[in-house]
Amino acid sequence: MTETPILEARNLSKHFTISAGVMTKRTHVVRAVDGLNFDIAKGETLALVGESGCGKTTTTRLLLRLQDPTHGSVRFAGEDVHALKGAALRKYRSRVQAVFQDPWSSINPRVRIRDFVAEPLVVNENLTSGEVDRRVHEALDAVGLGPAHASKFPHEFSGGQRQRIAIASAMVSRPELVVLDEPVSGLDVSIRSQIINLLKDMQAEYGVSFLLVAHDLATTRYLADRVAVMYLGSIVEMGKTDDVFDRPSHPYTEALISAALPSTPGMKRNEIVLGGEVPSPLSPPSGCTFHPRCHRIIGDVCVSKTPVLSPDPAGHCVGCHLY
Amino acid sequence: MAEVQISAQRPRRSLWQRSRDFPILPLAVLLIVFIIPAFFAHWIALHDPYVPNLRARLQPPIFFGGTWEYPLGTDRLGRDIYSRIVHGAWYVLAVSFIGILVGVVVGTTLGLIAGYVRGWFDGFVMRLVDISLALPAMLLALALAAAMGASFLSVVIVVGFALWAYFARQVRAEVLLLRNADFVARSRVAGSSHFRILFRHILPNVTNTIVVLATLQVGIAIMLDASLSFLGIGIPRPTPTWGLLVSDGRDFIATDWWIAFFPGLAIMLTVLSVNMIGDWLRDTLDPRLRQV
Amino acid sequence: MNTSQTDALLDVRNLKVEVTTKAGSFFPVNDHSFSVKSGETLGIVGESGSGKSMTAMSLMRLLPKHAAKIRGGSVKLDGRELLTLSEKEMRKVRGADISMILQDPQTSLNPAFTVGDQIKEALKLHAPGGRKTLRERTIDALRRVKVAAPEHRVNSYPGEMSGGMRQRVVGAIAISCRPKVIIADEPTTSLDVTVQAQYLRLLKELQDETGMAILFITHDFGIVANLCHRVIVMYAGRIVESGPVAKIFAKPAHPYTEALISAVPSLHGQKERLTTIPGQPPAPTDIVVGCPFAPRCQYADARCHSEAPPTVAADQSGDHTTSCWRAVEA
């Protein structure tokens, strides 16, 4: 990562306030995302992995400016995303796009494919309708759908085709960053690999950066250059995909990878069984939030002191008192 | 779950296939009793509905001793009941249509905005809805009649006031679900303004609901109009609205039953047909029901 | 399918289910034959629309009455024919002999009752007892699915539990009457990776303990590889391959199975480009002539498009079958 990153998140935090109880006005603060620091380089794929409730979806909503952070900032091409206004904001909107998990709910059922795919162009750029048509056909062509599909409605397509349409719409404005929120987990197995390959081809051709959110580790391994493992709103480990998957350092990463089922029968694996479940973010444990489930706990320091995410010379970061 | 699997990739039924279970009978009744009279009253009426004919007072309907001259009988001033019903249909249609339009426009706009922006405006609109649903429409009608005098306008306002809250509540509920749909988030990411999201993405997804609800409200509007006329705070005399006709026959129900009966029958048939068509529309337009 | 019928606990022969919709009728379950023994786990693998959930529902006789009809075949549990039982007799079989774990733990529990009440309800139907014994057996059922502090948890409402915990409760209800067969319809799809691993281990332990047979419906070959003894692969309403898991992974006989296995991204080994299956599965109402997979198959020839292949043995042992013309020729 010698060149300047296209996106930098610094101390990014989002806290929600929930009022509890009918009679009392007690409120809880949920730290959905707490102090994230990460960069995404041009043409790179960074994956956020973790279990439900770890804050990965909140993170994407902050990057997409669907929500404002409580603390910290997101800088895109050097500019603070949450301070953008007017023309600068419109520019950001056309440079950062998203593909969502569920191809059934992410496309408005009442809008023609052409209009759906064209939306980022129509709202952000001043193009003639002929120019828009040309770009839409180009984008549909790139995802393997002919221009004949442009006038159809979404219900005429299967899940895999819909996800292709969603990708076409995300790519039509030639964005520099696309947030992929579980792009294949809603699809059938035989369609999944088609989409994974398509995304890789898109990246190779257009040099776009991806922020991938996934809970499926195998998909992540195929798409991501670097991985950030999240637990209860914080990154616990971050590094090159192969390093993290082949030599996981944080006990949680170890457990997560060991829990993934191998794809061939009879394959030996040393599964690390985590006790209990992810604690409620309403009352996260003290110190290292992973300590109640940790199989390598070293002592009082885990309970009392929050570990710092510290990088080694190769850029691999681990937030654990063991290191 | 089984249903989901069947329907996952089922081709959409063509319009012809869907029209096969179209409610022909209710539609025919509606045309004959309501629509045709409303638009062609002058051609199909037999007599002038306003001119009394004291020599033909209280004629019974045909088959009950009457003649073809007055097929549904006459009232105590000798006016032809049939012609009065036919001429009244226009007013009933106009009041219910315009009243519902007022309700749809006001209710949908407030419901859309309330559900989308949430916050204090949402709370404010929902309290208005609560108040509006708690306040009897009759009370408002009385107040309006006292303040500005009963007129076509006052009746339309009362009908619109009585109905807007249903639209607002229903539309808001659907918007609350839709605003969290991924396609709304995607559109925001694409850079759409709130205005564009509301009117290009959310509104088209609630139109079915509005159409169905509006159809089902026609019955309520007609009944409300009739009740107002019956109480004497509707469109003033001598306009022969159906409620007024029923009211006119009230004192004669034991002896000259036909004066109230036929206008009452017209109200019942119209409301029943409209409701049946509304049910059919709801089943046809609701995508969840359509799939099964 | 030469599994000797004597030792089969659940034996399904030539089961056919017809679904009638306004767009036409079709067979989501088309001539299915398979069997499962005590203590065995049979994986039923297929993509959405392949008819795998329909198969499960027809075994329970819980098909939607107005739309789906069983059009032939037999389902024998311990030698007893289920398809001819009266609805009342069938109700006794459900829950007591065969029970089911559904995909979504959010909706398969009633949020208005405590989990204890819901387990008790299942117990009461099939094995009535006094208040105290019922409570003990409820707590015992929770203990068997490894819910911590079951004495307290019986009084919890589903809303107070996590997804993994709720799915354990669903499991507790399913096993509470010690059924001989459990049908699990993608029970772990909505669970997180670490919780899924816990749940699969729990199922295995329960099976070792009680000797129940499990029909595990899934689209995930990873789960099949780790949990199942045998597997049947479904495509467009037909069983295209069936056999022991190790054999099918080592030497898949049907091109669909082969493609499906190699399309799954792996956590280990080389990261070469994923193989894909071109195209889409046929819509259920499409009229299929020949092999349903032929349009997507890299080996298909003229006969595959015109004639449906028969089901034949894929090797000498006879426990591995497939329906593919390539196997017929071999």
TrEMBL record, chain A:
Alphabetical list of InterPro entries matching this protein: AAA+_ATPase, ABC_transp_ATP-bind, ABC_transporter-like_ATP-bd, ABC_transporter-like_CS, Oligopep_ABC_C, P-loop_NTPase
Entry GO terms, CC: plasma membrane
Membrane topology: Peripheral membrane protein
Any single biological process term in GO: transmembrane transport
Cell compartments where the protein resides: Cell inner membrane
UniProt cross-references to SMART domains, sorted A to Z: AAA
Alphabetical keyword list: ATP-binding, Nucleotide-binding, Transport
Protein name (database record): Peptide/nickel transport system ATP-binding protein
Organism listed in the record: Poseidonocella pacifica
UniProtKB/TrEMBL annotation, chain B:
GO cellular component, one term: plasma membrane
Gene3D superfamilies noted in UniProt: MetI-like
Protein topology in the membrane: Multi-pass membrane protein
Keyword presence, Transcription regulation: no
Keyword set, alphabetical order: Cell membrane, Membrane, Peptide transport, Protein transport, Transmembrane, Transmembrane helix, Transport
A Pfam family this chain is assigned to: BPD_transp_1
InterPro entries: BP-dependent_transpt_permease, MetI-like, MetI-like_sf
Membrane spanning stretches: 22-45, 89-117, 124-144, 150-168, 210-237, 257-281
Domain ABC transmembrane type-1 as annotated: residue spans: 89-278
Principal place of residence: membrane
SUPFAM superfamilies named among the record's database cross-references: MetI-like
Sequence similarity: Belongs to the binding-protein-dependent transport system permease family.
Protein name per its UniProtKB record: Peptide/nickel transport system permease protein
Organism listed in the record: Poseidonocella pacifica
UniProtKB/TrEMBL annotation, chain C:
Superkingdom field: Bacteria
Record CDD domains: ABC_NikE_OppD_transporters
Molecular-function annotations in GO: ATP binding; ATP hydrolysis activity
Keyword Transport: yes
PROSITE patterns the record matches: ABC_TRANSPORTER_2 (PS50893)
Record flagged with keyword Cell membrane: yes
Name the UniProt record assigns to this protein: Peptide/nickel transport system ATP-binding protein
Source organism: Poseidonocella pacifica
UniProt lineage: Bacteria, Pseudomonadati, Pseudomonadota, Alphaproteobacteria, Rhodobacterales
